[in-house]
Amino acid sequence: MGSSDRLFSRQRTVHQILGGGLVADVMLWRQKNLTAGILVVTLAAWVVFEVSGYTLVSLSSSVFLLLFTVLFLWAKSAAILNRPAPPLPHLHLSEEVINEAATLIRNHINVFLSVFEDIALGRDSKMFIKVALSLLLMSVIGSVTDFLTLGYASLFIVLTVPALYERYEDHIDTYSLKSYRKLQQLYTRIDAVCINKVQKWILEAKKLS
């Protein structure tokens, strides 16, 4: 298929659009064991949260408490019995890593503030509509599901939809473009009817005046 027969007339493959790295390989099931492992581990975590009634904070606290207790007792018993201490690497964040993280966070915050300013001052109507619809959608989704279920469902979609699209992209693009063209034709007809009605209404209003 040529680029004109693809959605949005794209010329790059799905793998290239997703970055072409490890993340793209995982999303497109080119690292099948890793992708399947992520889904299984995430599903197991979701089941644990749902069945046990744990929250993320309580489960994290329990896991860290167990981890610290084991390491502490291991280190103390090793000192008494002249055994090697727990094989932990030196835990340290370099100044370079902190600066890079701070720069990344600052850039994202500045983008958010710029968008907020454009919307608040009425500069970007399209962005306002996009943000309003996104927030409305998030509100509706949040009212019918919890955060963990939403997170797992989102991960499941991310790890399945791109792979399915890549596998059947010829058929999906063909039917999508046909549907898009039909919707364009329908919109043109509706728009023409509405314009005619508005024009007639204006003419009638002028006659009455």
UniProtKB/TrEMBL annotation:
PROSITE patterns: RETICULON. Its main location: endoplasmic reticulum. The keyword Endoplasmic reticulum applies. The chain crosses the membrane at residues 33-49, 55-75, 127-144. Keywords: Endoplasmic reticulum, Membrane, Transmembrane, Transmembrane helix. InterPro entries: Reticulon, Reticulon-like. It comes from the Eukaryota. This is Reticulon-like protein.
